Amino acid sequence: MYMDKPLRDFLLDTFSRTPTPGGGSVAALTGALGASVLGMVANYTLSKKKFKSVEGRIKEILKELEEKRDRLSELIQKDIDAYQNFSKVMGMPKDTFEEREARTRALQSSLKEASEVPLATASVSFRLIKIAYELLSKSNPNLISDVGVGVILAWATLESAALNVEINLSSIKDSSFVEKKRRSLSLLLSEGKKIKEEVVKKVKEKISSK
Fold first, then answer.
1. What DSSP state is assigned to residue 209?
2. 125 contact partners, CB below 8 Å, separation of at least 6
3. Which of these, 80, 171, 177, 191, is most buried using a 10 Å CB contact count?
4. CATH number attached to the domain at 20-208
5. What pLDDT does residue 49 have?
6. CA distance 194 to 163
7. Is 137 exposed, middle or buried (0-12, 13-18, 19+ CB in 10 A)?
8. Closest CA to 147 of 63, 27, 44, 74
9. How far apart, in whole angstroms, are the C-alpha atoms of residue 102 and residue 91?
């Protein structure tokens, strides 16, 4: 489990000529960092008289950010596990017709499972983008740039995860499955981009008005 190892190990293994960790795990880690930055913003907003009216909501946001951070941390390993399962299936025998048929079925199943991991990463990161938008008006303005950093990291996670979804979908033969997943992904990307751009715009405006 990479979350139990030093961050340096993750960086070195990603840099090296090994299949995992790959882009999917890196996307999830980026999202976990985004959730952590937004969590810092929320923590610095708590217990301030100026924000007493929103303290209850900030506590709820903080709890959700902890959950999202932990979920993305899990997805780092899940992406690795999904690739290892796919790699194992690729090694199945294919000498006879029956073996080839069994291998094809197993490959399609593993590809579907593998596509669910980055799609989950994309979904969680979309939620982070929406939380960042809410923090714009409820959080300590001294940390406004960190709201911007959080939403940018969340958007990078969403875009990166989308690429990993697509690479898996491109080899899946179940057209209804592919269409359903692409539709879900398209909604996350289009809406996420709008919200992200609005957050970044407002962050820059608040910084320039200081």
1. T
2. 27, 31, 34, 72, 154, 155, 157, 158, 161, 192
3. 80
4. 1.20.120.680
5. 82
6. 19
7. exposed
8. 44
9. 12
Q: What count of residues does the chain have?
A: 210
What is d(CA 30, CA 52) in angstroms, rounded to the nearest whole number? 31
For the purposes of burial, counting CB atoms within 10 Å of the CB of 57, is it exposed (0-12), middle (13-18) or buried (19 or more)? middle
Please give the single-letter amino acid code of residue 187. L
pLDDT at position 48 is: 79
CB atoms within 10 A of CB 44: 16
Q: Please list the rounded mean pLDDT of every run of 10 residues in the chain (210 residues).
A: 85 92 96 98 89 92 97 96 93 91 95 96 98 95 96 98 96 96 97 98 91
Q: What is the Cα–Cα distance from 20 to 36, expressed in whole angstroms?
A: 24
**E strands within the chain?**
none
139 touches 147 (CB < 8 A): yes
Please list, residue by residue across 167-204, b when 16 or more beta carbons sit within 10 angstroms of its beta carbon and e when fewer do: ebbeebeeeeebeebeeebeebbeebeebbeebbebbe
Asked if residue 153 lies in contact with residue 189, where contact means CB atoms within 8 angstroms, the answer is no
Q: Do residues 144 and 180 lie in contact, with contact meaning Cβ atoms separated by under 8 Å?
A: no
Closest to 153 in 3D by CA, of 172, 175, 185, 131: 131
> What is the pLDDT, as a whole number, of residue 156?
98
Q: Which tokens belong to 94?
A: 């294919």
